[in-house]
Design goal:
This protein is an alpha+beta fold. Helices cover about 25% and strands about 35% of the residues. It has one domain: OB fold (Dihydrolipoamide Acetyltransferase, E2P), CATH 2.40.50. A hairpin with an 8-residue loop joins strand 1 and strand 2.
Length: about 120
């Protein structure tokens, strides 16, 4: 086999390898909410009762941003997700949050979906 063929095959295999980017569904409880100015944390966040790194995500701590600044989703959708987090917090209901560690605000991962559970 020619050396150029070996290099080509090696390059193709490297490109086919999955990256470390992860999206994980996290079942947790909301233990705190935060509203910040537009420059920090995407404007609104929720803290879950599970450390996200322990689930294989590249996220510090247990905070997720809903991107209320409109960076990753329209603002009205972000605020609806944040409203759901506040409702779950107030009613002490569990949530299922889809966390994306490829999109972050100030290092905190983005929650692209939240379901309030019974």
């Amino acid at each position: 086999m020619k050396i150029s063929t070996v290099f080509t095959l090696a390059a193709l295999m490297a490109l086919a390898m999955p990256g470390s980017a992860t999206t994980v569904a996290v079942e947790a409880n909301v233990v705190r909410t935060l509203v910040a100015d537009q420059e920090r944390f995407g404007g609104c966040m929720a803290k879950l009762d599970k450390p996200l790194a322990s689930l294989g995500l590249d996220c510090p701590g247990a905070w997720v941003s809903f991107s209320c600044t409109g960076t990753f989703t329209p603002k009205d959708i972000a605020y609806r997700m944040f409203d759901s987090a506040q409702m779950a917090f107030a009613l002490e209901k569990p949530v299922l949050v889809q966390v994306d560690d490829t999109r972050k605000h100030n290092g905190n991962c983005y929650a692209q979906r939240i379901d309030v559970l019974r």
